[in-house]
Predict the 3D structure of the following.
Amino acid sequence: MLLIGMFDSPFVRRVAVSMQLLDIGFEHADWSVGRDFERIRQYSALGRVPALVLDDGDVLSESALILDYLDHSVGPRRALLPATGRARRDSLKLMALAIGAAEKGRDQIYERVFRPPAKRHDEWTARLQAQMYGALGEVEKFCDLHDSQSWLFGSAMSQADITCTCAFTFLNEALPDAGIAKRYPQLGKVAARCEAEPPFQSTHVPFFTPSG
Protein backbone atom coordinates (compact mmCIF):
# COMPACT_ATOMS: atom_id res chain seq x y z
CA MET A 1 0.00 0.00 0.00
CA LEU A 2 1.03 3.58 -0.63
CA LEU A 3 0.25 6.36 1.86
CA ILE A 4 0.30 9.79 0.25
CA GLY A 5 0.86 12.95 2.26
CA MET A 6 3.37 14.64 4.55
CA PHE A 7 3.66 13.62 8.19
CA ASP A 8 3.45 17.22 9.42
CA SER A 9 -0.27 16.90 8.64
CA PRO A 10 -2.15 15.50 11.66
CA PHE A 11 -4.58 13.81 9.29
CA VAL A 12 -1.82 11.93 7.46
CA ARG A 13 0.12 11.26 10.63
CA ARG A 14 -2.73 9.61 12.49
CA VAL A 15 -3.07 7.15 9.62
CA ALA A 16 0.66 6.42 9.56
CA VAL A 17 0.81 5.88 13.34
CA SER A 18 -2.22 3.60 13.18
CA MET A 19 -0.74 1.51 10.38
CA GLN A 20 2.46 1.04 12.34
CA LEU A 21 0.60 0.03 15.49
CA LEU A 22 -1.45 -2.47 13.49
CA ASP A 23 1.65 -3.83 11.72
CA ILE A 24 0.26 -2.91 8.31
CA GLY A 25 3.14 -2.25 5.95
CA PHE A 26 3.10 0.72 3.59
CA GLU A 27 5.26 2.85 1.36
CA HIS A 28 5.22 6.57 1.99
CA ALA A 29 4.88 9.23 -0.69
CA ASP A 30 6.04 12.41 1.06
CA TRP A 31 4.09 14.71 -1.23
CA SER A 32 2.92 18.24 -0.46
CA VAL A 33 -0.57 19.47 -1.37
CA GLY A 34 1.13 22.66 -2.51
CA ARG A 35 4.19 21.47 -4.39
CA ASP A 36 2.77 18.15 -5.58
CA PHE A 37 -0.89 19.03 -6.05
CA GLU A 38 -1.23 17.70 -9.60
CA ARG A 39 0.61 14.50 -8.71
CA ILE A 40 -1.71 13.93 -5.76
CA ARG A 41 -4.75 14.55 -7.96
CA GLN A 42 -3.76 11.55 -10.06
CA TYR A 43 -4.82 9.47 -7.05
CA SER A 44 -7.19 11.76 -5.16
CA ALA A 45 -9.64 13.78 -7.27
CA LEU A 46 -9.93 16.39 -4.52
CA GLY A 47 -6.18 16.73 -4.26
CA ARG A 48 -6.45 16.06 -0.53
CA VAL A 49 -4.29 14.01 1.79
CA PRO A 50 -4.09 11.48 3.19
CA ALA A 51 -4.78 9.16 0.30
CA LEU A 52 -4.16 5.45 0.69
CA VAL A 53 -3.56 3.43 -2.47
CA LEU A 54 -4.54 -0.17 -1.76
CA ASP A 55 -2.79 -3.19 -3.22
CA ASP A 56 -5.65 -3.70 -5.68
CA GLY A 57 -5.28 -0.13 -6.95
CA ASP A 58 -8.33 1.30 -5.21
CA VAL A 59 -7.73 4.64 -3.49
CA LEU A 60 -9.18 5.76 -0.16
CA SER A 61 -9.17 9.47 0.68
CA GLU A 62 -10.00 11.18 3.99
CA SER A 63 -8.45 9.95 7.18
CA ALA A 64 -11.64 8.79 8.94
CA LEU A 65 -12.51 6.52 6.02
CA ILE A 66 -8.97 5.12 5.94
CA LEU A 67 -8.97 4.44 9.69
CA ASP A 68 -12.30 2.66 9.43
CA TYR A 69 -10.88 0.50 6.63
CA LEU A 70 -7.81 -0.35 8.70
CA ASP A 71 -9.87 -1.37 11.73
CA HIS A 72 -12.11 -3.51 9.55
CA SER A 73 -9.04 -5.14 7.99
CA VAL A 74 -7.58 -6.31 11.29
CA GLY A 75 -10.88 -7.23 12.94
CA PRO A 76 -12.55 -6.07 16.17
CA ARG A 77 -10.02 -7.68 18.53
CA ARG A 78 -7.14 -5.59 17.16
CA ALA A 79 -9.10 -2.54 16.02
CA LEU A 80 -7.97 0.79 17.50
CA LEU A 81 -11.52 2.02 17.96
CA PRO A 82 -14.03 0.20 20.20
CA ALA A 83 -16.60 -1.63 18.10
CA THR A 84 -19.68 -0.82 20.19
CA GLY A 85 -20.95 0.80 23.35
CA ARG A 86 -20.30 3.98 25.28
CA ALA A 87 -16.55 3.77 24.77
CA ARG A 88 -17.03 3.91 20.99
CA ARG A 89 -19.37 6.88 21.23
CA ASP A 90 -17.09 8.78 23.61
CA SER A 91 -14.04 7.97 21.48
CA LEU A 92 -15.70 9.26 18.31
CA LYS A 93 -16.86 12.38 20.13
CA LEU A 94 -13.36 13.12 21.40
CA MET A 95 -11.81 12.44 18.00
CA ALA A 96 -14.30 14.71 16.25
CA LEU A 97 -13.42 17.55 18.61
CA ALA A 98 -9.67 17.03 18.14
CA ILE A 99 -9.88 16.81 14.35
CA GLY A 100 -12.23 19.79 14.26
CA ALA A 101 -9.69 21.82 16.24
CA ALA A 102 -6.92 20.74 13.84
CA GLU A 103 -9.04 21.82 10.87
CA LYS A 104 -9.66 25.24 12.39
CA GLY A 105 -5.94 25.61 13.07
CA ARG A 106 -5.14 24.63 9.49
CA ASP A 107 -7.61 27.22 8.24
CA GLN A 108 -5.88 29.91 10.30
CA ILE A 109 -2.60 28.99 8.62
CA TYR A 110 -4.21 29.11 5.18
CA GLU A 111 -5.59 32.57 5.95
CA ARG A 112 -2.13 33.84 6.81
CA VAL A 113 -0.09 32.02 4.17
CA PHE A 114 -2.28 32.00 1.09
CA ARG A 115 -4.30 35.22 1.37
CA PRO A 116 -2.65 38.57 0.54
CA PRO A 117 -2.23 40.75 3.66
CA ALA A 118 -4.70 43.36 2.38
CA LYS A 119 -7.41 40.71 2.03
CA ARG A 120 -6.99 38.91 5.35
CA HIS A 121 -10.07 38.96 7.52
CA ASP A 122 -9.24 39.41 11.19
CA GLU A 123 -12.80 38.68 12.34
CA TRP A 124 -12.78 35.39 10.44
CA THR A 125 -9.42 34.42 11.93
CA ALA A 126 -10.71 35.25 15.41
CA ARG A 127 -13.73 33.04 14.81
CA LEU A 128 -11.53 30.15 13.68
CA GLN A 129 -9.40 30.57 16.79
CA ALA A 130 -12.47 30.61 19.04
CA GLN A 131 -13.72 27.39 17.46
CA MET A 132 -10.31 25.77 17.89
CA TYR A 133 -10.08 26.80 21.54
CA GLY A 134 -13.64 25.67 22.20
CA ALA A 135 -13.04 22.19 20.81
CA LEU A 136 -9.72 21.77 22.62
CA GLY A 137 -11.33 22.95 25.83
CA GLU A 138 -13.81 20.08 25.66
CA VAL A 139 -11.02 17.59 25.04
CA GLU A 140 -9.10 19.06 27.98
CA LYS A 141 -12.11 18.56 30.27
CA PHE A 142 -12.27 14.89 29.31
CA CYS A 143 -8.53 14.41 29.81
CA ASP A 144 -8.72 16.14 33.19
CA LEU A 145 -11.13 13.46 34.43
CA HIS A 146 -8.71 10.66 33.60
CA ASP A 147 -5.53 9.46 35.24
CA SER A 148 -2.64 10.97 33.31
CA GLN A 149 -0.79 7.66 33.65
CA SER A 150 -3.45 5.71 31.75
CA TRP A 151 -4.72 5.66 28.19
CA LEU A 152 -7.92 7.52 27.40
CA PHE A 153 -9.96 4.35 26.91
CA GLY A 154 -9.06 0.94 28.24
CA SER A 155 -5.65 -0.56 28.96
CA ALA A 156 -4.02 0.16 25.60
CA MET A 157 -3.49 3.06 23.24
CA SER A 158 -6.59 3.67 21.14
CA GLN A 159 -7.48 5.81 18.18
CA ALA A 160 -8.63 8.50 20.59
CA ASP A 161 -5.09 8.78 22.02
CA ILE A 162 -3.61 8.81 18.52
CA THR A 163 -5.93 11.42 17.07
CA CYS A 164 -5.82 13.75 20.07
CA THR A 165 -2.03 13.59 20.14
CA CYS A 166 -1.61 14.26 16.42
CA ALA A 167 -3.94 17.24 16.65
CA PHE A 168 -2.26 18.63 19.79
CA THR A 169 1.28 18.35 18.42
CA PHE A 170 0.30 19.89 15.10
CA LEU A 171 -1.44 22.87 16.67
CA ASN A 172 1.27 23.39 19.28
CA GLU A 173 3.97 23.53 16.59
CA ALA A 174 2.06 25.22 13.77
CA LEU A 175 0.54 28.01 15.89
CA PRO A 176 3.27 28.93 18.39
CA ASP A 177 1.49 32.11 19.46
CA ALA A 178 -1.74 30.30 20.36
CA GLY A 179 -0.41 29.00 23.68
CA ILE A 180 -1.71 25.47 23.11
CA ALA A 181 0.59 23.65 25.57
CA LYS A 182 -0.05 26.19 28.32
CA ARG A 183 -3.81 26.24 27.84
CA TYR A 184 -4.28 22.46 27.73
CA PRO A 185 -1.83 20.78 30.13
CA GLN A 186 -3.86 17.59 30.61
CA LEU A 187 -4.12 17.02 26.88
CA GLY A 188 -0.41 17.77 26.78
CA LYS A 189 0.24 14.90 29.20
CA VAL A 190 -1.67 12.50 26.94
CA ALA A 191 0.32 13.74 23.96
CA ALA A 192 3.66 13.45 25.79
CA ARG A 193 2.99 9.83 26.63
CA CYS A 194 2.10 9.01 23.04
CA GLU A 195 4.97 10.98 21.53
CA ALA A 196 7.41 8.82 23.49
CA GLU A 197 6.22 5.73 21.59
CA PRO A 198 8.17 4.55 18.49
CA PRO A 199 5.31 4.99 15.95
CA PHE A 200 5.01 8.63 16.96
CA GLN A 201 8.75 9.27 17.02
CA SER A 202 9.20 7.80 13.55
CA THR A 203 6.42 9.97 12.09
CA HIS A 204 7.18 13.26 13.81
CA VAL A 205 8.07 15.98 11.34
CA PRO A 206 8.15 19.49 12.89
CA PHE A 207 5.65 21.76 11.19
CA PHE A 208 7.14 24.45 8.98
CA THR A 209 4.99 27.47 8.27
CA PRO A 210 5.92 29.31 5.07
CA SER A 211 6.36 33.02 5.50
CA GLY A 212 3.47 35.14 4.38
